[in-house]
Amino acid sequence: MNSLINIPATSISARQVPDDARINILPRHFGKHMMVLENSVYDFMHQLCERYRGGYWHYFELSNGGFYMAPNQDTMYLCVEGNGFSGEMSADAAGITVCLFAYSHLSFRYTDEVFARHYHSLRDFAIDHAEAGLIAAAID
After folding, report:
1. Which end of the chain is more exposed for a tag (fewer CB within 10 A), N or C?
2. What's the predicted TM-score (pTM) here?
3. Average pLDDT for 24-30
């Protein structure tokens, strides 16, 4: 994140998607790219967290139309070789971090704007997250 971030005027909230509604979430947010997105998020987690071995992920929808996923764990230790970041964060913050990586990466691969739009929605949410400093250090 850079120092020229526009902070939203209103607070953005996250709502965990109930288990019985999960099946419709990825198609609604990412359409035909839903599997590409999901696999990219898992791949980034494998790259950034040496101890990650898979597992259940929670889905979250944001009040600004965004979406992210977070693993069902307590804390995770992430290492980003590209910028020298290494540190422990909550699984929620780790999920936000890897989703931001995935959205950014995919926004350059696909011509439609779905990934860029989700990147900006999630980044706007991350600015007010309790672990905003760690998230920003990891993605910078």
Report:
1. C
2. 0.91
3. 96
